[in-house]
Amino acid sequence: MMRCTLASIVLAVVAFQVGCDSRPDIEVSRVGETLSDEVLLTQQLKYGKLSYEQLCIGCHGAKGDGNGEAARFLDPKPRNFKFAYFKFSSTRSGELPTDADLKRTIKYGLKGSAMPAFEFLPEPQVEALIAYIKTFSPKWHERGTGSPIPIVDDPYRSLDDKSEAIARGEVIYHGYATCWTCHPAYVDGGKINDYRKQLGFTTYDQFRDGLGESVGKANVEGWMIFPPNFHRDYVRSGADIDSLYRSIAAGITGTAMPTWVDSMNLESDDGSKTMLVQTQDLWALAYYVQSLMRERPTKVKPDQLVVRGDRARTIYINGIPADAAKKQADAAEPAGEEVDVDF
Ligand code: HEC
Ligand code: HEC
Known about the structure:
globular, binds heme C, Cytochrome Bc1 Complex, Chain D, domain 2, mainly alpha
């Protein structure tokens, strides 16, 4: 044992290493001690709050209600974290997203909206931001995170030629899932009925006007949202095949876009137990949607912005610019009346 001289005590305090019975242990007692979860969480939340105030507050607001300074200029509006309706997740519509979902949104942003990509942020900072965002709503405690939807095998992944997937997707999109009740149809009514017959469904006598355009749908906060026209608009949370599978399968919370993963079953009624539609067909839908997006450059006119937010210039409903169409709809609907939202 070394002798306790003043010099050795000073050395001990500075270096935290030298053993000495008489050294003042207050300064050094915390070294090597594991901080309690509570202390860690408090530190993380402080870091999260600071980061939020630097990077997010201008849009999402000090109270997390989506009402930052810039919000009034934005369409779609920044997310209101108090409501905790998170749209882009791997969990079913209505469920809270996983941390991985939130990380993806923060890192890659949401294309075609003001939500920027914060790719440069270190992982702990993103985690701190997520922890802080969760403090805005009690739903995180009350319900907990939802579980991710199943990812079934992709039968087309290894094929170089995706034309089979795309053709199948076109049938499912128009004949089975009738995605065109909200999104545009990309074939005419006659073709839709052909696809219906292929699957043993009844056909339609008539189709809505403006079948080649989206139908505006109110979201949970009452804002009008136009489902993307894949020939023209960006999708927000990734155009790669896995992201498209996720968006279609899981649906989009707080908007009309349904969860599809539980509805992809159709058995033939000839007693053969053949499945006419199955969950794997979600991949066909994803490849089909991606193929539509790939045709985009030939469809977009030079004066059209490929941003749904700029509706007045880009989106027309039954030949009327969307803003005017919305005004017409508003005028027809007495103010204060509740908007009928279907999810
Ligand atoms: C310039 C404005 C702007 C800034 C700055 C901004 N956001 Fe956003 N954010 C948006 C908009 C707009 C949306 C909604 C997009 C939509 O509805 O498609 C959004 C949506 C989100 C969502 C919801 C995603 C979902 O699935 O619903 C999260 C989470 C989010 N932002 C986190 C952050 C964080 C964290 C920061 C700061 C690091 C931040 N945002 C900074 C504009 C912004
Ligand atoms: C009841 C209306 C409705 C139906 C039916 C519907 N969608 Fe959607 N969909 C929406 C709305 C609304 C949005 C836009 C959500 C937003 O951006 O806020 C959307 C968005 C999407 C997106 C974009 C996701 C992103 O990252 O931005 C994809 C892809 C999509 N839908 C595919 C489909 C497919 C494929 C079908 C049929 C299997 C379908 N939708 C059926 C309403 C619908």
